[in-house]
Amino acid sequence: MTNIDQKHPTGTDEFLKGIWKQNPVFVQVLGMCPVLAVTNTAVNALAMGLATAFVLVMSNLVVSSVRQIVPKQVRIVSFIMIIATFVTVVDYLIQAISLDLHKALGAFISLIVVNCLILGRAEAFASKNGLGRSFLDGLGMGTGFTLGLLCLGGVREILGSGSLFGVSLFGSSFQPWVVMVLPPGGFFTLAGWLLFFNWRAQAKARSETSNVKETLA
Amino acid sequence: MNEDPLWQIFLNSCLVNNFVLAYFLGICPFLGVSAKLGTASRMGGAVTFVMVVSSMCAFGINALLTAMDAPYLKLISFIAVIASTVQLVEMFIKKMSPALFRALGIFLPLITTNCAILGVALFQTNKGYGFLQSLVFAVGAGAGFTLALILMAGLREKLELARPPEMVKGAALAMILAGLLSICFMGFAGLGN
To answer: Which residue of B lies nearest to A184 if distances are taken between CA atoms?
Structure first.
């Protein structure tokens, strides 16, 4: 992205940056607690991602619309109150839709309040930008977060229980890799993904430098 | 009402269900402040203190809200209490030890968004602990958090001397370390229930 683009990014850019360039899970490494805790199956990961995305979009909208009224000194507290309200809404919503899911996610739905990603977007983006842009930013970041959670949840479920979204993949002869659904598996899977992205970035940088060398020669 | 004996609650919250390594709560400060041993132990102390105070407040609030029949206000009032406790601790540390205040930096106000603290408040109400049980639970969780932070800092100080490959450096290496620590803590699983 050039400097000119950064000054006047289009709406599509605001949306896409959350999915790829500034992906909250793999690039910014924000909001790690739910990322690691509830990704032992793909369904849990998807539900958690959607819940977080909803809170993110709504809080971005409200924060953006009250940004001129709230005094600077109390802004963080007010943002947290706004976020907490929407998290309470989501908590009761999930409880109404599926009690099993609510039980599986447990306290982690309430813990969306303290997800640094949401407060981070409210503070860094929504409190400085208009309604439309904040909405797109929230939507993009939420989608990126959900995708990141799915990447982890998918890998952990396939390796740890030999299934994806509850559908068995390998038949009965598969010996599940139990450690992947247990807490250490979360750390290892995330480390694996981070290694993969680092390796890709390095390979890209290396090919670019070799291209420059070729043109110079 | 929960009838668990106190020592069991302490062991559970400190080792068996360690907040960082088994519940993944408070990962941000765990990765952010664990580079130096001294800072790590003081951060652990600050977090434990906020945990204990906010756990006591949360117990009172929960009783009040149950009496008022307004459980939907729980989350909002918990977070308000934690935010004000952190503000208090921040002023206290700034007055008592400006050096520590500088060393902790941005992570001090970020204790507000530390999931471990809200986690203690939420878990103790979910499990229906009494006042003394809540207190022991909070102390245990704080001790567990401090222990994990110190272990991690020790490992990372040693790793300064090693030369990992370029692509492993940074977050990926910290994650692998945390995973290994987490496997070690799984060894405690037989202790509790």
So the answer is: B179
| CA A154/CA A98 separation, integer angstroms | 21
The letter for the amino acid at B20 is V
- pLDDT at position A86: 93
Domain extent, residue A142, equals 3-168+175-216
Facing B23 at nearest CB: one of A37, A191, A195 = A37
Q: Rounded to an integer, what distance in angstroms lies between the CA atom of residue A3 and that of residue A1?
A: 7
Q: How many domains does chain A have?
A: 1
CB contact under 8 A, A202 and B166: yes
What ipTM was estimated for this complex? 0.80
pLDDT in tens, A33-89: 777 888 888 888 899 899 999 999 999 999 999 888 888 877 878 888 899 999 999
Question: Is B151 among the domain residues?
Answer: yes
Give me the residue from A85, A119, A179 closest to B113, CB to CB: A119
Q: Hey, are the CB atoms on A85 and B76 less than 8 Å from each other?
A: yes
Instruction: Spell out the residues 6+ positions from residue A100 whose beta carbon is closer than 8 angstroms to its own.
Output: none
- Copy the structure tokens of residue B133: 């049980």
A114 to B126: CB separation less than 8 angstroms, yes or no: no
In a domain, B38, yes or no: yes
* β-sheet bridge partners, residue A189: none
Residue ranges making up the domain that contains B108: 6-186
Cα-Cα-Cα-Cα torsion A145, A147, A149, A155, nearest 10 degrees, comes to -160
Tokens describing residue A166: 């509850």
In a domain, B142, yes or no: yes
- pTM for the structure as a whole: 0.83
